Amino acid sequence: MSYRFADRTKMFKTSAIREIAGMIQKKGSDVISFAGGNPFEHYFPHEEIKRAFEKVFESGKGSLQYGMTPGFMPLRELISERVKSKGISAKPEEILLTTGSQQAIDLFSRIMLSPNDVVLTENPTFLAAVQAFESYEAKVVGVSGDKDGMDPEDLEKKLKQHQPKFIYVVPTFSNPEGKVWSEERRRALLELAYKYNTLVLEDDPYGDIQFHEEETYTPIAAMDEQKSQVVYTGSFSKTVVPSLRIGWVTGPAPVLAYMSQIKEAADLMSSPLNQQALYYLMTEMDLDAHIRMLTKQYYQHMSVMQDYLKTLDGDLVSWNEPKGGMFLWANVHESINTTELLAKILDHGVAYIPGAPFYVENPQQNTLRLNFTHSSPEKIKIGMERLTAAFLQSLK
Ligand code: PMP
To answer: How far is the CA of 2 from the centre of ligand 1 (A)?
Structure first.
């Protein structure tokens, strides 16, 4: 049988992360993984979530019914308050609840992209976003940048050259680079977006995991006073638990209207049961205190990883200290190809994600992404010992 699949299936790629997760699973449970983007289960508010679900069930059977497409209004009200504290003004009616922020990326792509349209992204950037863009047969073009964000000159050049449908960015504690854009670069991006009449998709799942309280990072959406240019998405996956699959999106009214309309076609609505449970959780538990605890702990995890790297020769490895989020991005000696080394690394009982798959063009083979949230600080230490032993051996 020859299946007559849609042309767009030719654009589908398997995710490097999923492939590596499969390899790790085959190796057994002794592998210490810095590969995925998982939070540390030990910090999950397990009991509080259990109680929240009990409360939902005590409230009757309504939560088991179909709900409205944009989601449970009391939760949208709480999110409206939370984004206000970041300087983003979005009324509850202007917030669409989604099945994780990944669905927001997908729905936005669906309403924006026709075959051969262009999306500009950072290079490297978040893999699953690229998967979504390409699944709608768009072309993804990388904009060069540095530790402070996209280079405005290259951005302007590519805006002129490609007339992209939108620019996708993760400006606060990005995945994979763990970097945070400077205020200046954020403003420069927004100015160019206005000038070239191009939307910005600002993806901010990590913004709350901020290690240094005294620093402020203004979301680009908060700078968009005209509220015309930025579509902003957030998530509870990193701050509560990923399995609730609750994210949200806000942005210009016509964008939200189309996204809500097409969400009906995608899944009618996201789970009212989970949304109500999260609502109870947020009213009963001090989420900000929980996030402060997480942040403090993850800073410890990151420090253990970083302290280990500091003991190594600067020629072997270099990185910028993450100021939040879940990832440390490293450059290793140029003679090391991190993709080729991975199979051997697994034999040492440790795993990472090579940097190459995150690039939309010109992959740098001597880069890697290390996640510091999934393992305990003790395990991180052991994992880092294994990792450096493998790197040193590969240099011989
Ligand atoms: N955006 C970025 C940058 C991410 O790293 C992730 C998760 N790894 C997501 C979006 C999707 O998260 P979720 O769907 O769980 O909200």
So the answer is: 35
pLDDT in tens, 118-168: 999 999 999 999 999 999 999 999 999 999 999 999 999 999 999 999 999
For ligand 1, whether the C-beta of 171 sits within 6 Å is no
Quick one: tokens of 226? 């005209």
Ligand 1 in reach of 45 Cβ (< 6 A): no
Residue 101 in contact with ligand 1 by CB distance below 6 A = yes
Question: What is this structure's pTM?
Answer: 0.97
User: Do 144 and 264 sit in the same domain of this protein?
Assistant: yes
Helix axes 127-135, 100-112, angle to 10 degrees: 30
Q: What is the mean pLDDT of residues 365-379?
A: 96
> Ligand 1 centroid vs 180 CA: distance in angstroms?
16
Q: Is residue 376 part of a domain?
A: yes
pLDDT, tens only, 235-253: 999 999 999 999 999 999 9
Ligand 1 binding pocket includes 338 (Cβ within 6 Å): no
Cα 366 to averaged position of ligand 1 atoms, centre (Å): 25
The atom of ligand 1 lying closest to the CA of 170 is 3
Please indicate whether residue 240, judged by its CB atom, sits closer than 6 Å to ligand 1: no
- Does 58 fall in a domain? no
| pLDDT reported for residue 390 | 86
Residues 303-318 have pLDDT tens digits of: 999 999 999 888 889 9
Say if residues 12 and 135 touch (Cβ distance below 8 Å).
yes
Domain span holding position 305:
15-44+289-394
What digits encode the pLDDT tens for the residues 139-149?
Answer: 999 999 999 99
- pLDDT tens digits, 35-55: 989 999 999 999 999 999 999
188-221 burial, b at 16+ Cβ within 10 Å, e below that, comes to bbbebbeeeebbbbbbbbbbbbbbeeeeebbbbb
The verdict on residue 6 lying in a domain is no
Same domain, yes or no, for 180 and 99? yes
Three-state DSSP class for 395? helix
Distance CA 220, CA 149 (A): 12
* Ligand 1 atom closest to residue 37's alpha carbon, by position in its atom list: 8
